Every structure is written in structure tokens, then in C-alpha cells.
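Protocol step 4 of 6: structure prediction from sequence.
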Amino acid sequence: AFSLYKIESGKQYHFNDIINHNLSIVLTDNLSAEKIFLLRSLFMLPSTQERVLIVEDDVNLLEGLKEILEMHNQYQVMTAENGKQGLEILRNNVNQPPDLIVSDIMMPGMDGFKFFEAVREESRWMKIPFIFLTAKDTKKDIQYGKLLGVDDYLVKPFDPEELLTAVQQRLRRQRMLNVAMDSDISTLKRNILTIIHHEFRTPLTFVVAYADMLNDNNVAEFDDEELLTFLRGVHEGARRIRRLIENFITLIELETGEAANNFEWRKRPMVQLPAIVEQLCYQVREEYQERKVEFTFTFPDNLPTIVVDHEYIRSAIVQLIENAIKFTDKDKVAKVAVKLSTQDDMLYLSIRDNGRGIPEEEFESIWKNFYQINRPVYEDQGTGTGLSIVRKIVDLHNGTVMVESEEGAGSTFTLALPLQQGLPNEGQNN
């Protein structure tokens, strides 16, 4: 009563044979290499032995676990008797790190929790899944491990089948995640290359053209006003290229998981937030000197402190300020109202403009990578990455971002970020 999958006319194969990695049927029926590859890809099967690192201070148990996994000839097993030895093995296998780590918790020298934290501190090891081995009466250990982000647990004593099932499921899930990420990254690369071809060409043309004029032997023929125009053209083109590169780097970090690693070691309290927001507003206005822009600020006294990645939060704020200016018609004064407030352990930053507004049916689409609102009409909106970057940065900080908008009347974007309990207020008046 098994489900069947037809590979070739007249030949049928059981799903469970393939899923359980039993490829003897496939290999003995003279399937082509292409079909074998297709089967492996379809069912997320490994093309080579997968590497498993076992860290356990009980030598007898360690050898038993190793023997169980090696019996099936699917795994290349490495062993260590404590966390320090485990780290040494990882450092000695930089080019071939383990695909999975199985670790005890209670060990001398470096216990499982400290070992896990040390592994997660290295960006190259962050994606290695972890299974902890724990005793029945250690519920606190399980809760603590879940807070750290441990993938799975096996409670001692367990039988060999439980171990094999846990290892197979965790590795298969990781393969699926890797395939999905590879696909997402490939799509991201294609989109970036397409945008580079279009968006870089215009500012680069201005930079080269104006620079050529300034480099010309007849530069003395130009008056001061013309020379100033050339210099501004070079500056504007270079500024736009720089912003494009910065946005792409940030987007790639957010999409590949590198941003999460950055966040862990870069986050720190952000004091003087009103002053920082005001500075960023005027900084952006300097880059849009051809536009008329007016800011109004509403900042409370004694604003609580937030703990953030300063670089990413600054980037998110700049994206919203730029949007407020870009999406206001050029013949209008861009009026941008910036407000900070707090409520229920959250800090709110709202940026309201008097621009074109967003159709309600596009409220969800605007957060997608490379999405642009009515591109043929609004050519000045850029790459379509700004709001996507904003949402991903806010998600990284366990916050939310909201939009209210009315076509022809403007939009309000609000960032909500969690306050950190126990940190002092800023005690400032802005």
C-alpha cells in the first residue's frame, strides 16, 4: 500500500525506499546519472557522506553513538570529549565543517551551552544545526537551550532508532533550507545584476562626462558657474552610486543571514536618539539640494533607551526620510513630520510626508525586494529595495513597521522597536 513514483516506463519505485536513502533499486536499474541526480535533488538526498561531530565526555557512550551512525555508511563521524576539543576539531576542518553537531550538555572543561555559544559566535559555523543530549530531569536545561536557539534535543536514555531519526530529520531539514537559500540568493543575484545594468549606468555616465570636461585642456574656457555645475554633477553621480552599493550590501547581509551575526556583536544602547534622527534628516536634505524640504520634529523629554545595531537602524531611518522626499512631487515643498513616542514598552518613530501616497492594494507589495510603485510614471524611485531593507532591519530588532497612506495626501511610516527594561532614560530635552 505504498505510494509509488514512476521513473521510467514500466519501472516503479517506492517512495519510502528513496526517502530512507535506500538507493539500491535506483542504482541497479541502470538509471542515467542525470536521473539519479534528479532523484537526489527531488528528495533532498545527500550526494556524499554527511559529516557529524559528536561531543560527549562519556567515552563508552561516545563510541556507541559513533558506531550507530557509521553502521549505515551515510555519515562521516568526528568525535570530541568536551567543548574545547570540539572547537579544535572545527578549527582544524575549516574547509569541511560538520553538517551537524550532536553534543552532551554536562561536560568538564567546556559544557555544551558554552560550546554552543562559541560555535554561534563564528559566522562560518552559525548555520550548523545542533542536537543536545540531556537527562530526563533537566527541563531547565531544555528551556535554556531553546532560548539560545538549539535545534533539537534527545533525552537520555534513547534507543539507536531515535538517534538515527533525529539525525536524518535534522540533516534533511538543513538540506531543504540550503536549497531554498541557494534559490533565493540566485534570484537576488539576478535582480541585482539587472538593476546594476540600469541604475548604475545613468549616474556613472554623469560622473564620467563631467569629469572629462574638467579634465579637458580647454577647461579655462568655462566660467565659474559652469565649473560648479560640473563638480555638482560628479558629486551627485558619485553619491547615487555610493547609495546603491550601500543598499545592495545591506540587502545581501539581510538576505544571507550575515545581518543576524552582525546584530549580535554590534548591538548597543542608542543614546541621544532625537539628535541622531534630526542629524540624519538634515544629512539627507543636503543630498537633495535641488528640492525644497521642510522638517518638523516632535520629541519627548526623558526618552527611554533602545538597544540596536546603530548602522542598520540609521540605514532604516535614512531610507524612510529619502522616500518621504522622493515621493513628493518636485514642484511641491516636501513637508516631513518626524515624531518619537513611547507606549507599552515600545518606542515609536513616525515619519509623515505630503507626497503622492500609496494605493491601499499595494500596502503589502511595497515590502518586497525590488518592488516599485507604477515604475513607468515614477522613474525617480530608485531600485525598489528601500522598504524591503527597512522591514528586514526592523524584523531583526524584533520590531514592526506600519504604513498609513492616502493617494494624493501622503504617507506615514511608523517603526515600533522594543525598549530595553532596566536601562536609564536619556534625560534630555530636544
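Step 5 (inspection) to follow. The chain has 13 helices and 14 strands.
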